[in-house]
Amino acid sequence: MDTFSTKYDYLIVGSGLFGATFAYQAHKAGKRCLVIDKRPHLGGNVYCEEMEGIHVHKYGAHIFHTSNKEVWKFVNSIVEFNRYTNCPVANYQGKLYNLPFNMNTFYQMWGVTTPDAALAKIEEQKAEALNSLHGREPQNLEEQALTLVGKDIYEKLIKGYTEKQWGRSCTELPAFIIRRLPVRLIFDNNYFNDKYQGIPIGGYNKLIEGLLKGVECKTGVDFFHSEFRDWRKYADKLVYTGPIDEFYDYRFGKLDWRTVSFETEVIDTPNYQGNAVVNYTEREIPFTRVIEHKHFEMFGQEVYDCPKTIISKEFSTEYKPGMEPYYPVNDERNNRLAEQYRGLAIQEKDVIFGGRLAEYKYYDMAPVIEQVLAHFNTKI
Ligand SMILES: Cc1cc2nc3c(=O)[nH]c(=O)nc-3n(C[C@H](O)[C@H](O)[C@H](O)COP(=O)(O)OP(=O)(O)OC[C@H]3O[C@@H](n4cnc5c(N)ncnc54)[C@H](O)[C@@H]3O)c2cc1C
Question: Do residues 224 and 350 share a domain?
């Protein structure tokens, strides 16, 4: 067993984007850091496993997107990003529709070729839904979605997918889950509205390697079951990016999570579905999406130069202890519990809590980096 006699400025628990960016900034400022992670690899949820020459997003497909120029410049200063643009496709009963809802979708749905004709169709179906409510507010997600986009889009592209995601019927889900359903009256399949998006050239591991260059790291070390639990012996400050309830030994109770499970297969063809992301929107098909990983980083002929492909089917799964905690559950109980834990956290003088697990908050990658940059007040 290694002995760590040196004293660090920071012991950083978790090598995901929060921990790794923090370590990068602290190291740059001349601070001594030790990063530990309980997983056998660095990078947290953005880690990719190489299979058949393809970077497989092991913890779910990750697409970097931001409108923050400083964040974009920062990540590109670590590793250059490619031109990947997320344009998911929906498969409903074997028929394909472009997402997000735009003129391509409306053409595929109704054969309409002009924005006016598409709008007229949507308005007609919205009016039908509103009439059937007889002046009352939508009571559930189904009624809400019908009043926002009408029955064709709801039934083919929203209903089954949402029911699989939540494991409940749309009539049992609260209306507030869907506040807005933007429709684009232009031919534009770009999923994100952000100014910048892409994937690190060479994969996310390159980004993590770049952030952690020169920083001492140890994998396979669980903070709570290691000598580092007594962290003041090793460092002046602790940066903690694990689950906040675990830090306080679940004293108020356990926080709930939602999770996703993956079935990954190697397929003996260079191009399986022609797109990185295909959503399966009918309820009868048990998975929600099929990710074909090579399309995040291989374009044109490169797709065919790599003879095999890797796909992952995604299943929305009810969380049980021991599974990966992915998404916080924002219901009353969990919000209250998280607030109680946050109340303890703000009293800690030498512990910095950061990232999605410690804050019990869903964050995209860019906001996580933005937070760390703000912490160090960086301008590059
Ligand atoms: C399925 C899925 C898809 C996503 N897709 C996107 C996307 O397309 N675009 C986007 O911008 N964002 C996406 N995100 C969000 C993105 O994953 C997060 O913003 C990012 O991972 C946050 O980094 P983090 O450091 O907070 O957490 P993590 O990456 O989870 O890192 C936390 C680390 O702490 C370690 N740890 C926890 N407890 C301990 C302990 N006791 N001891 C030692 N180590 C510990 C964990 O092993 C982990 O490595 C997605 C998230 C999920 C769940």
Answer: yes
